[in-house]
Amino acid sequence: MKNPKTDATQKDVNVTGKKKVSRSVLLGAAFLMATSSIGPGFLTQTTVFTQQLAASFAFVILISLLLDIFSQMNIWRIIAVSGLRGQEIANKVLPGLGVVLAILIVIGGLAFNIGNVAGAGLGLNAMLGWDPITGAVVSAILAIFIFVVKEAGKAMDKFAQIAGIVMILLMLYVAFTTSPPVGEAIVNTFKPEQISIFAIVTLVGGTVGGYITFAGGHRLLDAGIKGVESLPEVTKSSVTGILVTGVMRVALFLAVLGVVSKGLAIDPANPPASVFQLAAGDIGYRMFGVIMWAAAVTSVVGAAYTSVSFIRTFHPLIEKFQNWVIIAFIVISTVTFAFVGKPVTILLIVGALNAFILPIGLGTLLIAAHKKNIVGTYKHPIWLTVTGAFVVVIMGILSVVTLIEQVPLVFK
After folding, report:
1. Inter-residue contact 351 to 406 (CB < 8 Å)
2. Per the domain annotation, does 3 fall within a domain?
3. Crossing angle of helices 231-261/152-177, nearest 10°?
4. What is the domain range of residue 90?
5. What would be one Pfam family of this protein (predicted)?
């Protein structure tokens, strides 16, 4: 005869275990998205724009964060409700569109992953004095190891969380040591002395552009978190990811602002490294190495995982051996950097094309949100549709401008 008390206890244990797993996955997805966006480009962009705009850059950060949140909340919710990945949704909206989106994502992810691998090599060079190519190869091996272990998803979640927390703590420490004019920054957050549209577009593209905007949503789907009932958790996870990115961006901004406000000269050859060295001497430079390495290697993992998630549904073999395809993706990026170097021309071309991915991806998913054959009886909130459409229009127009500006530079 069954013991009701024992059965009840076992049920409680199962429920508690499920909650812990869900919380871990939700946090992992948030950090995967955040650390994917915090790469070498993130560090350089934030430093350079703070130099140019000083305290007014606070306004740029605020606006870009709002646009990021509107983008992420829409995309993550629609992926969760439909139970489909981005390319599957796109193919249902317009046959073949998913293939186009997947090609753009994979090409962009591969090209930028070469830059991420290079950044990891430079990080180990600053941290330990290693040759950048050796550092890149060692970093790639670590990234590959994550996908070799049996529970690759859990390993990826944990790695992203630890790396993200380390980066934030080190960045906050450096920001504190530079004693930035916080009051001036707060005032300029809402009443800027100057506004740069280009900076806003660059930040939005760097934070939720390309593969990044789909990273967390696809991770949640792979973990089985989907359906209308999961929307509160999905929304919380998407906002958490943007806020983690925001904290990192604000901390770096304040660190640079502190250096700039003191009239210290930042080395244009390596702006972020220069800031850390000016703020905390040789120790600061080593800290920069840790942050650069963590930012780059987590971006390597995020780019490879998300890019492959866009093609895994196209053939049963890719689905079956997805971890090995991810590993191949990382190997190709590393070999290209080691033997060819950073392909500037490719990065410029793909950078221009990558600008289209956010408006195409978000626009497609907004259409899908109102199709019963994709989301069933789910009613997408009007305020999310309106704010999402606003992001699509703004980023669509500005991506065309970016393409027009970039193509002549490539063929000069």
Report:
1. yes
2. no
3. 30
4. 33-410
5. Nramp
